[in-house]
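Good morning C.,

I know you're traveling, so I'll keep this short. The sequence:
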Amino acid sequence: MTIGKGRQLDEYQTFHREMAASWDAMGEGGPTLAALAALCARALVRRLDEPQTIDPIPLSAEAMAILYKARNRGVIEVRGVKTAFEAPGRLLAVYIEESEHQTVAFRSREFPEITIKFFDGFCELCRAGLILHHLHRDFTLSRQGFEIARTIDPLNIQEPLAMATEFGLHDH
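The tokens, ready to paste straight into the viewer:
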């Protein structure tokens, strides 16, 4: 049985449209953001299925710094800067709205490991159920995330807090 050239062309064009869409999504961090959303969803379902515990959750210093900075508004965005010239500047990083006019970023173009450590800390928070995913790049603290964040003593996490870059909300 042979397939007509028209059908082959349609399948070829469909494949390339799908690949182009996938490529565009990857350029926006789509697969990683989808994975983070899935981590948050799994933690949410797990919390609904299991009784609440009051056991402390072991977290890295980077995760604690993210919680602490997000304690007031709880609004977190994970994004990269596609237009950055150097690769470390394009990495996905954690941005936190400290206030209506102030944002904090945990990223370093000079030392990419800093960006990676804080991104990993954010993943910890997602797995622990302390973060909720909303839309695309938008996340917030969960109720438990707010509760824990407000108990953190900044003196215990001075080093990771010093790695934050602060700027006005529309300066990024």
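Safe travels,
E.
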